[in-house]
Design brief:
mainly alpha, 2 domains, membrane, iron, single chain, 309 residues
Length: 309
Amino acid sequence: MQHRYYWLLKWVAVLTTLGMLLILLGGALVTKTDSGLGCGRNWPDCNGSLIPKEITTEVLIEFSHRFVTGAVSILVLILVIWTWRALKHVKEVKFLGFLAIFFLVLQALIGAAQVLWGQGDFILALHFGISLISFAAVMLLAMIVFEVDQKFDAVRVDIQKKLKWHTIGVTLYSYIVVYTGALVRHTGSSLTCTSWPFCDNSDPFKLPAKMYEWVHMGHRFAAFLIFVWILYIMVHAMKHYKEQKVVYWGWIIAFILVSLQVIAGAFIIYTHLNLIVSLLHSLFISLLFGLLCYFILLVARSSYNEKNH
């Protein structure tokens, strides 16, 4: 690839990744502001017209989310086709491109189905997770674009069996954490427990009494486990992978993100669902999930290197 076009591809990769983040945060904003029916039971039009005639806050939020999703979808398509053509020698590119497009379309269809017919809370909770997979695939494509000039050792990693299994396990488990968090939002359980870290700090050992309390505290417990798990993995990586900077620093960044996620979760309670804090909560888990998926890519490369040496 010519140098000038390679830099252009880098810019497209960055813009597409940021765009996918906007889709995720826009979806969270729609949910948190109850703007899902801002355009009524109409899709893809908004209240009977392509451009809404009457602008309310709910209409603006919902229509903006749809517009951004449509615009970023074009960027995703450009990035996927470009990487398929320019980086076809990188074996992960075609699979990641397929994942990005498939799950982007799937999340759009689920969003449309919610508008047209409505969905249950447990189905709606999947919407964020499906969008997250598409974001992670785009983020990994962007990472591969930046790997081409080989300024860091992401291609030549050597990850041992213990870290491999922990990486796979914590990544799969992170999806459970994401789902429980989305379930808290969609069931309206965010302020069922008004204390932190326990549902009732005056009686820490009191079991939840209602379904919504179980949903809320289930997510807190799941978040606590992933915090401890990533802390353990970070310590292990710092002890045994000092020479592999992408692994060493990657797990340090993962721990910083999970720590910010926990802090944001606590401040959601303290600030009584402050919108900015809530969106930061969604941002941190999105970045963490994308990073964990990148670790899965590194694990796959390490296994491939072992088989071919």
